[in-house]
Automatic annotation (TrEMBL):
InterPro entries: HeLo_sf (IPR038305), Kinase-like_dom_sf (IPR011009). It comes from Triangularia verruculosa. This is Protein kinase domain-containing protein.
Length: 630
């Protein structure tokens, strides 16, 4: 059996060769516009490999330490790992195999050509040497191996592939690279590089602004791979990747359009009036959101159940200007999104002159919730069809995480661990794409009834696998700054919270909209909103999820005892105390949810500016939550 030290050294030495082979293949397809589809698919496979490789790199961008630990812990899998590297390099370095299988010929790049140059002979020599890197490979062979790989890499940098066969043979090259990536992921599926799925999203967006056409081609490549594969997991992966790139591109497009002082074009049929809906009292969720029946949609006499969130329009803002701004939000949210984002799909806006102070965003609900409603008009009424809004609401209304915590026993630990992981992963994907939610709170996380065997909603069971992250209406902290200015002319001073005021005010509204916000943002709401503020909101939700208490009730109701007059901004001392209360409550998680979960929450709730790459931190936190088990 091969020495683990030798295996790890061999793998470390072969990484640069594999990367060079990917680059040579990509360059082959890039020079010919007719082969651009192959180029995009090769670039996609290269991005997948780069993301997988990143999981092995240390602070010096070297894979030595992690691979060495892996080789000692799992020597048999490490041998398979090494075999995949060797087989790929032997195939794509051997001139005979290249011509026979893929219709390619290795040739010297003209500026490196010399007299009596025999590239094929040299490549054949290195390919044959790789055959000695097998189960008998040991540490004594490392000096010769290191020299061979160095010379082999230097040679590959002066070589290019030339097409000598048919175009259909080139398909096999891309397929071979895809098989190589899948095999590597199988060999290392249980390692720390489980974060590779998140890394891929980051890698494919690296050229989003510098090379705007590249991500679009990668999305097309992912769709091609989705259709070509028969593996359901691969089909789901490529489909989600294509949707994620599309979502990111919509964000980029809106940024460019808004930068020109314009707003996206929105079809007129996507701007609804209140007459297009039936807003029944049983459908009401909160002061800012409600379910509603969208009438005559998608065709006449049909009805769909939708979610409407109302956006208040301050008196100081022109209604038409606000409407144009919300078109950008609709443009982003109506794009296809991977399920992991947990964001609803926007169907349109609600605006008419009957109430210009509010504009609604219409969101699509899960298929078994939104469909099969009684039609507006039916030729023959079936007596079995129940038309009461109250009855329909009882079958289809969502329950927020806040309601669950307040009114039901604690969920199983396993369910809570999965919910925490899904929420943190969703926020990581949003930030990767460039989107900031700004209003992550327990009352904005919705769970709908599960789908029963008959396809109808089953109100006795909630679907915890697909929560919906809503809450796009303006938070109080953002809209009441203006109300404070409006009353400034009146004889009202900046007073401290009144004793017992929490009992008088709508407590959930005060707490839910304040304590989830990062204290730094509460100190100054005019600061640019940062990703770290979203992460703080996630930490607050994970704290509630772990303790199974809402924020106003943690630490014996310390936060809930401080109520605020809505016209008055809390003092810095009150904000500091709220932050300290949340931080103090986090120390209790260790004995309830375990040390891993507790440390993840504490890192989310840190009040200090987070240095370095925040996306990398979020990715790491998601990976750590995956190890939490009941």
């Amino acid at each position: 059996m091969a020495d683990p030290t030798a295996i790890s050294a061999a793998l470390t030495g072969l990484f640069p060769l594999v990367k060079e082979v990917f680059l040579m293949t990509q360059v082959l397809f890039e020079v010919d516009k007719k082969l651009r589809s192959f180029w995009a698919r090769t670039e996609l496979q290269r991005a997948i490999f780069d993301a997988w490789e990143d999981g092995w790199l240390d602070a010096r961008d070297r894979p030595d330490d992690k691979i060495k630990a892996y080789a000692f812990e799992k020597p048999l899998l490490a041998r398979g790992f090494l075999k995949e590297f060797v087989n790929l390099l032997k195939t794509l370095s051997d001139p005979d195999k290249l011509k026979k299988r893929y219709g390619l010929r290795p040739d010297r790049i003209p500026k490196y050509a010399t007299r009596n140059d025999d590239v094929q002979r040299d490549l054949r020599y290195y390919s044959e040497y790789l055959s000695t890197v097998d189960s008998r490979f040991n540490i004594k062979a490392l000096p010769a191996f290191n020299k061979s790989t160095t010379d082999h890499l230097n040679l590959l940098k002066t070589v290019r592939y030339v097409i000598v066969g048919k175009d259909y043979e080139l398909e096999d090259v891309v397929v071979r690279l895809g098989e190589f990536n899948r095999d590597l992921q199988l060999y290392t599926a249980s390692e720390a590089n489980n974060e590779a799925a998140q890394r891929i999203y980051e890698v494919v967006l690296r050229g989003l602004h510098s090379k705007p056409d590249d991500p679009a081609r990668l999305a097309e490549a992912a769709l091609f791979e989705q259709k070509a594969t028969i593996d359901p997991d691969a089909k789901s992966f490529y489909g989600d990747l294509a949707k994620f790139i599309g979502f990111s591109l919509s964000l980029r497009d809106v940024t460019v359009i808004n930068g020109r002082g314009l707003s996206p074009n929105m079809p007129s049929q996507k701007i609804f009036t209140r007459r297009d809906f039936s807003f029944d009292a049983p459908y009401r969720l909160s002061a800012n959101s409600t379910l509603a029946r969208l009438l005559d949609y998608p065709t006449k006499y049909q009805t769909r159940l939708v979610l409407v969130e109302w956006i208040p329009v301050p008196k100081t803002v022109n209604v038409k200007t606000k409407l144009e701004g919300l078109k950008s939000e609709w443009y982003v949210l109506h794009a296809d999104k991977p399920d992991g984002l947990l964001l609803p799909s926007a169907q349109g806006l609600v605006y008419d002159n009957t109430d210009p102070n509010f504009i609604g965003i219409v969101f699509q609900l899960p298929s078994h919730i939104r469909t099969e409603l009684p039609p507006k008009v039916a030729g023959r009424i079936d007596p079995r069809v129940v038309r009461s809004p109250k009855t329909i609401a009882a079958q289809r209304m969502p329950t927020s995480l806040r309601q669950l915590i307040l009114h039901t026993p604690a969920l199983d630990l396993g369910v809570r661990f999965k919910l925490a992981q899904k929420l943190l992963n969703s926020v990581h994907l949003m930030h990767t794409a460039g989107w900031i939610h700004k209003k992550i709170r327990a009352d904005n996380i919705l769970f709908f009834p599960s789908q029963g065997r008959d396809g109808e909603p089953d109100p006795s069971r909630l679907d915890f696998d697909t929560p919906l992250l809503a809450g796009f209406h303006s938070a109080r902290l953002e809209i009441e700054t203006s109300s404070v200015l409006e009353v400034a002319a009146k004889p009202l001073e900046h007073i401290r919270p009144l004793q017992g005021l929490g009992k008088v005010l709508n407590q959930p509204r005060v707490i839910a909209l304040d304590a989830y916000q990062h204290p730094e943002h509460r100190y100054n709401v005019n600061l640019p909103y940062r990703n770290q503020y979203d992460l703080y909101g996630v930490g607050a939700v994970l704290l509630e999820l772990g303790l199974w208490e809402t924020l106003e009730n943690v630490e014996k109701g310390d936060i809930g005892k401080r109520g605020y007059d809505p016209r008055v901004v809390p003092t810095r001392d009150d904000i500091r105390k709220d932050g300290e209360t949340v931080e103090r409550a986090g120390y209790k998680l260790d004995r309830i949810m375990g040390s891993t979960y507790a440390k993840v929450v504490q890192e989310c709730l840190t009040l200090k500016p987070l240095p370095g790459d925040l996306l990398a931190l979020e990715r790491s936190l998601v990976a750590r939550l995956e190890h939490c088990q009941a």
